């Protein structure tokens, strides 16, 4: 605000100061040139005296002495002009006049006669010298001094004209009248009258009367010269010489006074210009300092509250508001009325802005608190709905298990299996809703879970489990508090892999131990794959846990995976299976840290579970079994509860007979040529199988589905009987056992 006026003021003041300094510099230069100009005036007077002697007394010793005096003065004038550094035009005029003087002398010495032409030559030289003063004063660019200098130059020319008259009258002598000389003298007298009129216009009033008294005899002199030309009587001419000498001396005094006044004026003007420049410079500096002081005061009154407002805005944007939002997200109560106002007082614009910012800050905190409360209410609603759905799904699974236990029809049993898988999928979807609402599914501690059971449980969680192939399952087990969440993670990844891969392609599920003692599980598919940008975005969401947004419902599987993996320290990453191929596919790598893995699958005590996001007391439903699929129960219960197997078979007798036969020597018959004879079947061991005859091909070319279904039903009946013997005797599977879905 203050910069532009200050710059304009400085520019204008600087221009004025520069102009005054330039004027002072010019006046100072003119003042330094005045001694040389005064010498030029003296030289002009000497040249006039030389003219009079050269015309009136040519070849006289007095003329020689005058020429020497003029030459000495010329040398001095040239030195002074060079030292004073006269303007170029003025110096050229001086050099030209002095050069013409030397030429005129040489011309007069050659002719040896005093003529009118010589007076004209001296007159022109004196006029040129009289112009030096006005030309030098003109450099000061002052009209008043120009007028004074012009008047001084006219006085010099007037004196020169009188010297011409004196020289011509003296040359006329007392003899017969020389009309040529008298005519030239008359012309000079007439020119004197014109010059006197010019001088009168430039002289000040205090010396005008004196000048008129000096030049008052001009009319009488003109009359005497005219009478001499008319009558030829020159007796009155010598009487004019005394008046001319006296008046010329008076003109010289008047001219000297004018030059002194001019020098004084130049000095005064120079001092005034310098004083004005210094005064204006001081005024500008003082005004600038005052403006700076005022600017500092105004800036302080403006900048201090602006800085406070700036600091408060940065603190609110970078520290206070984020911390408040984090507290709100963490469930802490925050009062928007406790927000401190910005420490800026006043009713001006900045104070009003500070108050408005404080109001905005409080409203932002209030809005954040309201949004958090709304989010909490929505989360509680989701949790309530999810718990109710979970309860219904658990009841449905119990009912399906009872139906499966009593079912004898293989076809209906298969349909019940499919319904069981769908119900399990619904249960996982309910758990996803709980995670989406910010809670965590309820888990029951069943002890460590082996890697094989972990992979089978994850496979049983998906509907199209037949498309999943388990490649490898290393030894080891997961701690109980992490097993259910890892199963959930793998199930979501398997679901995605099955959904985005062709129906005829298998999805591979493999696991291996990591270098840190952890477990690396990979879900490999050959499906559509993902674009690099989408893949990077998905990995970022998996790493950061992502936030709830409208996009969450579209990619709820990845959201749930990230939320479940973060508390356990499990790392999930996606990468292309076959980069560049038509069906590149995606490989999902799940790294379980070594702290969650037991090398031998056994542990006396399981460590405290990893800290999970707290769930409200009313949001914790009754614990439900995790491993309920029938398939897992068949695999883990069927083989685990059988007695020690008997590996004997009828083929053992054949092997023992073969061992005895190899210990007895065999008689070898040879031919006449000494070669052993061979007999078909002679080398067969006792009890060896005889060659089989090809069985007739099955006309249908495939197995009967009813036979396969009956076979499965018999197996299932046997399993039920085994459960009845090893379980609680009611023909139902023990609680907590995984079942196929």
TrEMBL record:
Gene3D superfamilies given in the database record: 6.10.340.10, Histidine kinase-like ATPase, C-terminal domain
Superkingdom: Bacteria
GO BP annotation list: phosphorelay signal transduction system
Keywords: ATP-binding, Kinase, Membrane, Nucleotide-binding, Phosphoprotein, Transferase, Transmembrane, Transmembrane helix, Two-component regulatory system
SUPFAM superfamilies attached to this UniProt entry: ATPase domain of HSP90 chaperone/DNA topoisomerase II/histidine kinase
Disordered: annotated span: 716-741
A molecular-function term among this protein's GO annotations: protein histidine kinase activity
rRNA-binding among keywords: no
Subcellular location: Membrane
Reaction catalysed by this enzyme: ATP + protein L-histidine = ADP + protein N-phospho-L-histidine
Transmembrane region(s): none
Segments forming domain HAMP: 340-369
Gene Ontology CC: one annotated term: membrane
InterPro entries with a match to the protein in the record: 2C_sensor_his_kinase, HAMP_dom, HATPase_C_sf, HATPase_dom
Entry-linked Pfam families: HAMP, HATPase_c
E.C. number(s) listed in UniProt: 2.7.13.3
Protein name as catalogued: histidine kinase
């Amino acid at each position: 605000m203050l910069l532009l006026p200050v710059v304009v003021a400085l520019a204008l003041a600087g221009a004025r100061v520069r102009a005054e300094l330039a004027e002072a510099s010019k006046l100072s230069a003119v003042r330094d040139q005045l001694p040389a100009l005064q010498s030029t005036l003296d030289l002009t007077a000497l040249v006039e005296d030389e003219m009079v002697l050269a015309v009136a007394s040519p070849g006289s010793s007095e003329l020689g002495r005058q020429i020497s005096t003029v030459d000495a003065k010329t040398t001095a004038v040239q030195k002074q002009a060079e030292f004073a550094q006269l303007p170029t035009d003025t110096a050229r005029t001086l050099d030209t006049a002095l050069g013409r003087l030397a030429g005129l002398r040489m011309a007069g010495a050659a002719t040896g006669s005093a003529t009118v032409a010589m007076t004209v030559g001296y007159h022109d030289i004196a006029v040129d010298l009289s112009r030096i003063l006005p030309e030098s004063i003109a450099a000061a660019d002052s009209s008043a001094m120009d007028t004074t200098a012009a008047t001084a130059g006219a006085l010099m020319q007037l004196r020169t004209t009188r010297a011409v008259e004196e020289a011509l009258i003296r040359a006329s002598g007392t003899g017969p009248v020389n009309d040529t000389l008298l005519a030239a003298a008359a012309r000079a007298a007439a020119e004197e009258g014109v010059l006197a009129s010019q001088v009168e216009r430039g002289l000040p009033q205090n010396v005008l009367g004196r000048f008129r008294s000096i030049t008052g005899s001009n009319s009488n002199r003109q009359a005497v010269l005219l009478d001499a030309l008319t009558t030829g009587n020159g007796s009155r001419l010598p009487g004019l010489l005394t008046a001319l000498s006296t008046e010329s001396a008076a003109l010289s005094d008047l001219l000297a006074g004018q030059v002194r006044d001019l020098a004084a004026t130049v000095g005064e003007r120079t001092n005034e210009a310098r004083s004005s420049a210094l005064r204006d410079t001081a005024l500008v500096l003082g005004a600038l300092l005052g403006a700076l002081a005022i600017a500092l005061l105004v800036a302080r009154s403006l900048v201090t509250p602006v800085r406070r407002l700036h600091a408060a805005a940065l603190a609110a944007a970078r520290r206070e508001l984020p911390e408040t939002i984090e507290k709100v997200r963490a469930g802490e109560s925050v009062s928007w009325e406790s927000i401190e106002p910005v420490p800026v007082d006043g009713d001006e614009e900045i104070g009003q802005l500070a108050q408005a910012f404080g109001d905005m800050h409080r409203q932002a905190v209030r809005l954040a608190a309201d949004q958090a409360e709304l989010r909490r209410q929505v989360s509680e609603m989701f949790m309530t709905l999810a718990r109710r759905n979970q309860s219904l799904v658990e009841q449905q699974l119990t009912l399906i298990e009872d139906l499966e236990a009593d079912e004898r029809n293989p076809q209906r049993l298969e349909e019940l299996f499919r319904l069981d898988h769908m119900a399990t999928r619904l249960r996982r979807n309910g758990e996803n809703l709980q995670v989406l609402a910010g809670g965590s599914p309820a888990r029951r501690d069943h002890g460590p879970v082996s890697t094989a059971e972990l992979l089978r449980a994850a496979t049983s969680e998906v509907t199209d489990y037949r498309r999943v192939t388990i490649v490898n399952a290393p030894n080891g087990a997961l701690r109980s508090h992490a097993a259910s969440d890892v199963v959930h993670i793998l199930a979501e990844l398997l679901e995605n892999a099955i959904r985005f891969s062709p129906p005829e392609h298998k999805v591979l599920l493999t696991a291996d131990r990591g270098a840190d003692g952890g477990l690396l599980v990979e879900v490999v598919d050959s499906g559509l794959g993902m674009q690099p940008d989408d893949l990077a975005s998905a990995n970022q969401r998996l790493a950061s846990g992502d936030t709830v947004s409208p996009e969450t419902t579209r990619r709820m599987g990845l959201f749930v995976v990230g939320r479940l993996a973060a508390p356990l320290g499990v790392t999930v990453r996606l990468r292309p299976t076959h980069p560049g191929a038509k069906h590149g596919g995606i490989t999902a790598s799940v790294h379980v840290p070594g702290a969650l893995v037991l090398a031998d699958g056994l542990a006396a005590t399981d460590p405290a579970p990893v800290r999970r996001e707290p769930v409200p007391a009313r949001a914790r439903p009754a614990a439900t079994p995790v491993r309920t699929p029938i398939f897992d129960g068949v695999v883990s219960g069927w083989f685990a509860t059988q007695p020690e197997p008997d590996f004997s078979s009828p083929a053992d007798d054949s092997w023992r007979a073969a061992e005895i036969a190899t210990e007895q020597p065999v008689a070898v018959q040879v031919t006449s040529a000494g070669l052993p004879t061979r007999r078909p079947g002679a080398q067969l061991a006792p009890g060896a199988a005889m060659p089989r005859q090809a069985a007739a091909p099955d006309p249908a070319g495939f197995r009967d589905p009813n036979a396969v279904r009956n076979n499965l039903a018999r197996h299932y009946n046997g399993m039920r009987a085994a459960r009845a013997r090893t379980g609680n005797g009611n023909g139902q599977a023990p609680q907590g056992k995984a079942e196929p879905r």
